[in-house]
Amino acid sequence: MLNSKKILAIIPARGGSKKIKNKNIVKIKKKPLLGYTIEQALKSKYIDEICLSSDSIKIINIAKSFGLNVFFKRPKILSTDDALTKDVVKHALEKSKKYFKKKFDYFILLQPTCPLRKSFHIDQSIKKLINSKHNSLISICDVDGYHPNRMKVIKKNLLFNYSKKKSEDMRPRQKLPKVFIRNGAIYLTKVSFFEKKKVISDKTSIPYLMEQDTSINIDGPLDLELAKILLS
Q1: Rounded to whole angstroms, how far apart are CA atoms 56 and 66?
Q2: Which helix (H) or strand (E) holds 90?
Q3: What DSSP state is assigned to residue 67?
Q4: How far apart (Å, rounded) are the C-alpha atoms in residues 69 and 154?
Q5: How far is Cα 190 from Cα 134, in angstroms, rounded to an integer?
Q6: Out of 51-65, 123-137, 150-164, which region has the weakest mean confidence (pLDDT)?
Q7: Phi, psi (degrees; rounded to nearest 5) at 214
Q8: Backbone angles phi, psi at 124, to 5 degrees
């Protein structure tokens, strides 16, 4: 059953980035960031085809140097800061169906900003979702010390507990209830569900838990430096 499902990997990599210039192709250990995701997607046992969605010729050429067949350029209207991921996915699916001449059962969204995600994470998540009765899966990690019970909000220059409890939860981290956050590494969705609901996930999504040291999602310079350390 698992091998009978057609799975498309979509790698979204637009050229614009604010906090880190040319973020998707910035080099870590002499390798462009994008290259880490391409290499692991190619190693997957279950991914049938890979689609790069980019508006940048430079990014497209780098992807080709890693052996990827890039068959379209993303339009500018889908490459702005306000562009929605679901619209980028819809465009990529339409282009892929036409190019590969096949119907895909699932797509997996692999952001280049998560270079520590490995092929076994990809394959384990695919196996988990297909063997379930659910429509989508999201990778997550433990928030650890950044727990909502410890967080604050500022109102009128005064501190208040984010959890709205009267007193702060001062228990040790290990005693706090488990809380998780999306790590951005994997979004896996049934194509028929996406086409019907026009969403990548919903309240019925199942989790795929990853360790914190594989959950770096590069947004700013500090994330980039941490990724460099972990990849050394």
Answers
A1: 16
A2: helix 85-100
A3: T
A4: 50
A5: 9
A6: 150-164
A7: -115, 10
A8: -65, -40
The tokens for 27 are 């080099």
Residue pair 106/189 in contact by the 8 Å Cβ criterion: yes
Q: Quote the tokens at residue 12.
A: 């979204």
86 and 148 part of one domain: no
Q: Say whether pLDDT at 1 is over 70.
A: no
Torsions phi, psi for 53 (to 5 deg): -115, 105
Task: From 179, 152, 154, select the one nearest 165 (Cα to Cα).
Answer: 152
State how many domains the chain has: 2
Q: By residue range, what is the domain housing residue 109?
A: 7-139+182-230
Q: Which residues lie below 8 Å from residue 216, measured CB to CB, with a gap of 6+?
A: 114, 115, 116, 223, 226, 227, 230
Q: What are the pLDDT digits (tens) for 58-97?
A: 999 999 999 999 999 999 999 998 999 999 999 999 999 9
Shared domain check, 198 and 93:
yes
Q: Is residue 34 part of a domain?
A: yes
CA 220/CA 63 separation, integer angstroms: 22
Residue pair 216/227 in contact by the 8 Å Cβ criterion:
yes
- Cα 160 to the center of its chain, rounded Å: 33
Q: Which two tokens stand for residue 94?
A: 């339409």
The helix-helix angle for 119-130 and 33-43 (nearest 10°) equals: 50
Q: How far is CA 90 from CA 86, 94, 129, 211, in A?
A: 6, 6, 21, 30
